Amino acid sequence: MIETVLAALIAAKIRHYKLKYLFMSWTFYPIIALEIILFFFQTNTFLSNYFYVIHFDRYFKTIYILAYLVPILYFKLYKQSLIGSASVLVGTLLNRFVMAQNGGKMPVFPTLSYLTGYLKPYTFDQVNDYHVFGDASSRFKILCDYIDVGYNVMSPGDLFIHFFVFIIIYSAIKELNLKHKEEFVKAG
After folding, report:
1. Which of 45, 119, 126, 167 is the most exposed place for a label (fewest CB within 10 A)?
2. How far is CA 85 from CA 91, 145, 160, in A?
3. Are 143 and 157 in contact (CB under 8 A)?
4. Furthest-apart CA atoms within the chain: distance in Å
5. pLDDT tens digits along 81-104
6. Burial, 150: exposed, middle or buried (Cβ in 10 Å; 0-12, 13-18, 19+)?
7. Are the C-beta atoms of 34 and 64 separated by less than 8 Å?
8. Who contacts 165 (Cβ-Cβ below 8 Å, separation ≥6)?
């Protein structure tokens, strides 16, 4: 979800928040560590090594989401986490709906991922999960995985799920900036 983390950092920068405070806080380091592991998984996928994806992806997603409990609890981002959780629920329901309409499988319509080499014609056969290449018989194509960023193909439901990450990181940056501003005023 590096693109979501980067989007949150860019949005915070546009709002003139200082990003350095995020990297000075220990609360962000578990997320950075997991992003590095995710990068390792993605790199192996590019190299057609699906071992890590097959064996660890299910557990990794849970651990990744749980890592966001650290900033939620530390910064008391309860309202933001409820909004993010509602967004995850909507995204999950959209993904489950489209999968139910397609025999329990999520049709994928890759474009850029073919050019980058992330997906190959045999990828889903080797990974053996719930993804399949989409075709003319795919139902509700507007909810399928078609948003291709070159190393990931997402659905609109996935974007709702990613919003959770965005809102928590953005809110943590905002809280850190407010905290440092208050400390500056007290010291001044």
Report:
1. 126
2. 10, 21, 10
3. yes
4. 66
5. 999 999 999 999 999 999 999 999
6. middle
7. yes
8. 1, 4, 5, 8, 68, 84
Three-state SS sequence of the chain: CHHHHHHHHHHHHHCCCCCHHHHHCHHHHHHHHHHHHHHHHHHHHHCCCCHHHHHHHHHHHHHHHHHCHHHHHHHCCHHHHHHHHHHHHHHHHHHHHHHHHCCCCEEECCCHHHHHCCCCCCHHHHHCCCEEECCCCCCCHHHCECEECCCCEECHHHHHHHHHHHHHHHHHHHHHHHHHHHHHHHHC
- Amino acid in position 6: L
pTM: 0.84
Contact of 32 with 104, CB cutoff 8 Å: no
Residues above pLDDT 90, as percent of the chain: 56
- Phi, psi of 47, rounded to the nearest 5 degrees: -90, 15
